[in-house]
Here is the input.
Amino acid sequence: MSAPPLSYEAWRRNAPQVRAKTAALMAAFGEIRRDKPRTATEAEFLRRVGTPERLIGPVRKD
Amino acid sequence: LAVYYWTVHEAFLTADVDVVVPTTERFVETLSALGFERSRDGRHWELPGSDLLLEAPASELDRGATVENVEAPSGRTLGMLSHVDVLLDRLAEFQSTGHEVVAQQALVLLASLSNEDRSALAGPAEARRVAHALAGLSALLAAIASGKRAAPDSGEWHEMARRIERAEYHLKDR
Here is the structure.
């Protein structure tokens, strides 16, 4: 028997607790900068929707 | 999207979403009927006017991987790769690439895992050949949490990944 679906509302209610559990760890990382390359299509799209460059990261040459 | 779903940290939220589905003719026709447009590289679909880009990098899940059903506000249910399987995926990727952001995601996924899931990780990690990655990152997580050390820099992550991969596959030092 499969488990009942998790509801989006339950996820939202639980989110602050999940974030709090790892807040110290995230602080230890400092500002997250993506070093994993993306495709040119992904990078161009993310730039267009306002994603900061540090979260877009390097662009892979296909 | 699954990394963000399980970690709830904005730095891990992205608008390009990987979906696991066979890219059959029917799938392509359905996306077109919904208004999605295929990108020039043929691998992505964008819904004009939205912040959504889809890619189907695989037609099926890794063997043994599980999904959790999540009910969207629309009432539809979608399958989300489980917390444990996203973690195993990131451990494998870190081991082979040494990317810092992948290691950071793996650590946060590990730190936010329930005790029940964490205690059942050893078997799946061995099966996916990421047991050394799990041990290494678990020790690192404990050291960072207790203030005994700072988070590694990019060079240290790459060196750690090389060490872990050599141990996992019994490779000689190069």
About this structure: The first strand of chain B starts at residue 16 and ends at 20. The longest helix of chain B spans residues 83-97.
